């Protein structure tokens, strides 16, 4: 691995300690209160998150015309659904959906930093922001997907979509076979953030 991409072994604990120190300093200076960070985290854990994305995906599975509208004009289609206010707000600006299909697999990355559609996917995982993932996924997506446990055969086209502040992408995974009798809530349980990022597929339980 390139030396630029090497990290200390305790990087997550180290980063958490730095965040706590920064939070304490901001509280001491009166810029935020001790509840500010928890309020933001609670918002993105209970109102904006992958449970919204799962509802959107399942509606697309059940209604092909909605799926077409979702791909054509994602914010407008999402606005049709009964979802919390703020779907197009912070970190949800300019969302766009792409659909997996037989012969096509989509993968979402952000080569510049870590742009990510929080309202439908939740908080971005640590590895999504890792420079090694960002560079390798753009250069050799099949190899990276195989390392995630998702080998893609050569007869399937892999499309890589680069999120940015202008467009934040997410994937509509294919509906798993054998799920015709499941309820909407049961289908939603099959839709993971990883499937909506393209590093996994939706699987029947």
Automatic annotation (TrEMBL):
Gene3D superfamilies: Nitrile hydratase alpha /Thiocyanate hydrolase gamma. Fe(3+) binds at residues 110, 113-115. Keywords: Iron, Lyase, Metal-binding. GO terms for molecular function: nitrile hydratase activity; transition metal ion binding. The keyword Iron applies. It holds the Pfam family NHase_alpha. Its EC number is 4.2.1.84. InterPro entries: CN_Hdrase_a/SCN_Hdrase_g_sf (IPR036648), CN_Hdrtase_a/SCN_Hdrlase_g (IPR004232), CN_Hdrtase_asu/SCN_Hdrlase_gsu (IPR023900), Nitrile_hydratase_asu (IPR018141). It catalyses: an aliphatic primary amide = an aliphatic nitrile + H2O. Residues 15-200 form the Nitrile hydratase alpha/Thiocyanate hydrolase gamma domain. Belongs to the nitrile hydratase subunit alpha family. This is nitrile hydratase. It comes from Hartmannibacter diazotrophicus.
């Amino acid at each position: 691995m390139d030396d630029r991409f090497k990290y200390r072994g305790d990087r997550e604990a180290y980063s958490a300690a730095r965040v706590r120190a920064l939070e304490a300093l901001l509280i001491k200076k009166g810029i935020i209160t001790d509840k500010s960070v928890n309020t933001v985290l609670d918002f993105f854990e209970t109102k904006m998150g992958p449970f919204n994305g799962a509802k959107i995906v399942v509606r697309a599975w059940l209604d092909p015309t909605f799926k077409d509208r979702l791909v054509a004009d994602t914010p407008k289609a999402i606005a049709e659904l009964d979802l919390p206010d703020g779907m197009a707000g912070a970190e949800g600006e300019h969302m766009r959906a792409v659909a997996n299909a037989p012969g096509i697999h989509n993968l979402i990355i952000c080569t510049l930093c870590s742009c990510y559609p929080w309202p439908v996917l939740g908080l971005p995982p640590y590895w999504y922001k890792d420079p090694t993932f960002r560079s390798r996924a753009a250069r050799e997506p099949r190899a990276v997907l195989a390392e995630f446990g998702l080998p893609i055969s050569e007869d399937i086209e892999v499309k890589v979509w680069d999120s940015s502040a202008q467009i934040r992408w997410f994937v509509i995974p294919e509906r798993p076979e054998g799920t015709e009798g499941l309820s909407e809530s049961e289908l939603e349980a099959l839709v993971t953030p990883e499937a909506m990022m393209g590093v996994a597929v939706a699987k029947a339980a």
